[in-house]
Amino acid sequence: MSEFATERDRAADLIFDWNEVNRKGRILPKNATFFDETLRDGLQNPSVVDPSIDDKLKLLFLMEELGIHMADIGLPGSSPRAFEDCLRISKELTSAKAKLRVACAGRTVVSDITPMIELSQRAGVPIDVYAFIGSSPIRQYAESWDVGLIAQRSAEAIDIAVKAGLEVTYVTEDTTRSRPDVLTTLFRAAIDHGASRICLSDTVGHATPDGVRNLIQFTKNVIAGTGRTDVGIDWHGHNDRGLALENALWAFEYGADRVHATGLGVGERVGNAPMELMLLNLKLLGQLDEGHDLTKLLEYSQLVSKALHWGIPINYPLVGRDAFRTATGVHAAAIIKSIAKGDRWLADRIYSGVPAGMIGRTQEICIGFMSGASNVNFWLALRNIPSNERLVSEILRTAKGLDRIMTDDEVMAVVERVREAS
Ligand SMILES: CC(=O)SCCNC(=O)CCNC(=O)[C@H](O)C(C)(C)COP(=O)(O)OP(=O)(O)OC[C@H]1O[C@@H](n2cnc3c(N)ncnc32)[C@H](O)[C@@H]1OP(=O)(O)O
């Protein structure tokens, strides 16, 4: 590292970064906030288990350490148990003087809003109200709602929350398939009645980055038309087309100042934008400051997995079992050379777009049918087993005859066999 003044100099010298050529943006707005939906939308997934309150609190404190600004803790109006859970969580966060802002969701109906007001009063903490209603023609058709009814329900709900002194974000479900004239009417009415934010929801995972840009630009224009400069824009996206992460990143670039995501992307159906990957990408784009301790990402993701009983796919970026593991000879050889130079920076980057050390992981080398001598020598050296040509070729011969990587016991069995034979 000595010939480079800083890590940045070193990266610039050793890596040509095509991402940075004519980079147009992905610039996080100064007032950007991250909104964690794991404990609301995440829990709408039919395969999860509702975590214990203790696990929910642990997760919320981890969010705070990660520099996540806000979390939705549920729908207190949906059942007495949901209310009591939200109350306990809010009280615990208040007594711990947590910086994390608490939000709750509910339909734009009085019976969903009043529990949030009661919650706020009893916990002694402001609750951000996320009041939602379907706005697209397909939702209107299914529910037999017209725009007048939607606007009227929305206004009533917003009025009650605003009168109680709570911040209201007006959530138009299925915004990405809603008509502009309807959105204009609804957004204007919501702002008139005191909503401080508009949440654009890609409820069914329909949007492409073009759609995100079009919709955010349109919304900015509607807000500008009201003469207000203090109304923020949320982006809430789903992953049905596999575009949730990309859309979330582009939403920031196009002008949303608050973007929603969930741990491991868990959420309704195929889920939401994954929080850990959104933070990771922003960090790699040089957009996150020191307030975001990404070494906590592993713990955060593993806790989401444990608390919600949600398996992590083995090839999942960052936290999957194989994210930093290789059995491939050419890859392993280059990583091993980097390690032999005593150069963790190099070892972390030579064959990975994400440095393992950034989140407290290390590169692992296995032995399999795609391996070469480097894998074997490294494996032996890690265990202080002296290497020799015969041992290496015997292990490799065994590895090449298998249809999967070798277990440690299988490699050790070869080591013992060769030892006994010599
Ligand atoms: C933003 C999103 O992700 S939307 C998903 C929000 N999360 C959830 O739904 C999970 C928690 N939900 C629940 O526990 C229940 O669905 C409850 C308590 C909210 C409602 O339960 P129920 O009263 O039995 O109604 P049910 O769930 O069968 O149907 C939903 C009702 O809400 C109505 N509804 C939905 N949004 C709105 C709205 N903004 N304003 C008025 N009514 C609404 C639907 O039209 C439907 O009404 P209907 O019963 O007259 O047909």
Automatic annotation (TrEMBL):
Lineage start: Bacteria, Pseudomonadati, Myxococcota, Polyangia, Polyangiales
Keywords: Manganese
Protein name (database record): 2-isopropylmalate synthase
Biological process, per Gene Ontology: L-leucine biosynthetic process
Keyword RNA-binding: no
Organism encoding this protein: Labilithrix luteola
Residue ranges of domain Pyruvate carboxyltransferase in the record: 32-298
Gene Ontology MF terms: 2-isopropylmalate synthase activity
Protein origin, superkingdom: Bacteria
SUPFAM superfamilies to which the protein is assigned, alphabetical: Aldolase
Keyword Phosphoprotein: no
